[in-house]
Design a protein that fits this description.
single chain, alpha/beta, Alkaline Phosphatase, subunit A, Alpha-Beta Plaits, 13 helices, 14 strands, globular
C-alpha cells in the first residue's frame, strides 16, 4: 500500500534565485535569516539532509543523512502561493497572474460594490495588519468593506466578525471570485475576518481562500483518476479550488495541520496526503518576525520526528516549500527563492544529492512515477535516482 505525505512549509525559501533582482528580491534568503535566531533548531531536518542541499551555507551539514535532497528552481513566472503550489503539482506558469500595484480598476470596484451591496475602503496594496489600523475604525462605523491587495495576485476583503458575519463574508468573496476573471483574474480572493477593538484588531483563523481553477491537469487529477485518494490538509483544497481532491481538512494553523496529519497517517489508505503549513508565511514571514519563524520551524521539526516514527514500509515523505518570505528584509512580501526538497522513507536511498533541479514540478513527476501513473504534467521524475530496488 503506497502512500506519499507531501508537506509544504509555506514560504521556507533557501536563497535568492538568479532572477530575484527582477522581482525586487535581491539578497533574500529566508533560511539564512531565521537560522540566526537562538530558537532555531532543526535536528530532524538536519538528519534528513536539509543542510546538505546546494547553496545552504548557514548550518553544518549532516555526515550521514537519512534522506535524499535537492534544491528546486521555480520555472514559473511568479513567487506566490498559487503559482508555487501549482508548479509542485505539475503546472509551469509562463504568464504570471495579474497584480495591481495601483489598486484594482475603478470599473471592477464599482461592479463589486453593485453586486455585493457594500461600499469599498482602501483599494491599495497594503500590509494585512496595517490596513486594519488605518481602515478598521472606518469599517466599524460604516460597514464598508476593506479591500486591499499586495505584491501577490490577490483580492483581499477584510471585515470585522461583528459587522459582517463570517458566512456572509464568504458569500461576498464568492461574488468577487465570479467578477475577477480575464485581465483581472487574480490567483486568489481571500476572506480576512478580524475581531477586537481599535487599535487592537486581530485577524482570526477564519481566513478562507477562493482560488482560480488550475488551467491544466495536475498530479492531483491524475492520482484521483487512477482510483487513489488525494487528501488535503490546510489551504491545499482552496489553492486548487477543490479540483483533484477526494477529501479535505481545513486547519487553524500549523499545530492543527500537523495534528490532522498524525491522524491521517494512522489510517489505511493509498494515495497522497498533501499538507500546507501556513503559519510560517502568514504569521511570521509577512510580519517580518524572524524569531517567531524560527520558533515555528523548531516546533515543526519536533513534530516531524514523531511523524517519521509512524511511517509504514511503503510510505514516502517529501518536505518542500512554495516560495520564500524573508522576514528580515524591508519588504513584507514573498521573495523569489529556491526551495528545499527532502525525501525519505524505508524505500528511499540515503544521502543522494540531486543537485539543483529545474522545476518544483519534478515533485509531481516523481510522485506519479511512484504510483505507476503515466505523467501528463510537467516535470522530470527523480525516482530512479532515490528509490531502493533491493
Amino acid at each position: 500500500m503506497k502512500r506519499v505525505f507531501l508537506i509544504v512549509l509555506d514560504s521556507f525559501g533557501i536563497g535568492e534565485m538568479p532572477d530575484a533582482e527582477f522581482y525586487g528580491d535581491k539578497g533574500s534568503n529566508t533560511i539564512a535569516a531565521v537560522s540566526k535566531e537562538k530558537d532555531f533548531r532543526l535536528n530532524t531536518m538536519k538528519k534528513l539532509g536539509l543542510f546538505n542541499i546546494d547553496g545552504i551555507n548557514c548550518c553544518s551539514t549532516e555526515n550521514e543523512p537519512i534522506g535524499s535532497f535537492a534544491r528546486l528552481s521555480e520555472a514559473s513566472k511568479g513567487k506566490d502561493t498559487t503559482i508555487g503550489h501549482w508548479e509542485i503539482a505539475g503546472i509551469q506558469s509562463m504568464n504570471p497572474l495579474p497584480t495591481f500595484p495601483e489598486g484594482f480598476p475603478s470599473e471592477t470596484i464599482k461592479k463589486f460594490e453593485q453586486l455585493s451591496g457594500k461600499k469599498v475602503l482602501c483599494n491599495k496594496p497594503y500590509s494585512g495588519t496595517k490596513v486594519l489600523m488605518d481602515y478598521g475604525r472606518k469599517h466599524m462605523e460604516t460597514g464598508d468593506l476593506i479591500v486591499y491587495t499586495s505584491a501577490d495576485s490577490v483580492f483581499q476583503i477584510a471585515a470585522h466578525e461583528d459587522i459582517v458575519k463570517v458566512e456572509d463574508l464568504y458569500k461576498i468573496c464568492e461574488i468577487a471570485r465570479e467578477i475577477l476573471t480575464g485581465d483581472v483574474g487574480v490567483g486568489r480572493v481571500i476572506a480576512r475576518p478580524f475581531v477586537g477593538e481599535y487599535p487592537n484588531f486581530v485577524r482570526t483563523s477564519n481566513r478562507h481562500d477562493f482560488s482560480i481553477k488550475p488551467p491544466e491537469i495536475t498530479m492531483l487529477d491524475q492520482i484521483c483518476e487512477s482510483g487513489l485518494e488525494v487528501i488535503s490538509v490546510g489551504k491545499i483544497y482552496d489553492i486548487f479550488s477543490g479540483k483533484g481532491i477526494t477529501r479535505f481538512y481545513r486547519t487553524k494553523g500549523n499545530d492543527d495541520g500537523m495534528n490532522k496529519t498524525f491522524e491521517i497517517i494512522k489510517e489505511d489508505f493509498e494515495g497522497l496526503c498533501f499538507v500546507n503549513l501556513v503559519d510560517f508565511d502568514m504569521l511570521y514571514g509577512h510580519r517580518n518576525d524572524p524569531q517567531g519563524y524560527a520558533r515555528a520551524l523548531t516546533k515543526f521539526d519536533s513534530q516531524l520526528e514523531n511523524l517519521l516514527k509512524e511511517m509504514k514500509k511503503d510510505d514516502i515523505i517529501i518536505i518542500t516549500a512554495d516560495h520564500g518570505c524573508d522576514p528580515t528584509t524591508s519588504s513584507t512580501d514573498h521573495s523569489r527563492e529556491y526551495v528545499p526538497m527532502v525525501i525519505a522513507g524505508e524505500n528511499i536511498k540515503q544521502g543522494v544529492n540531486l543537485g539543483t533541479r529545474k522545476s518544483f514540478s519534478d515533485i509531481a513527476a516523481t510522485i506519479l512515477d511512484y504510483f505507476g501513473i503515466e505523467k501528463k504534467t510537467k516535470g522530470e521524475s527523480f525516482l530512479n535516482k532515490v528509490l531502493n530496488n533491493d
